[in-house]
User: Fold this.
Amino acid sequence: MAKPNFQFQKRQRELEKKKKNEEKKQRKLEKQSDQPSEESEQIPKEDGV
Assistant:
């Protein structure tokens, strides 16, 4: 009976985690790039008030 290759399984889990974190990072960057443009339009500037 063959022994399981734990190194391979660990590496696969690490790659999955890395991929998931990269996707999260991209979503956060997209979200941040969208928000400032919307906020600048919504917030009126108060000059002299």
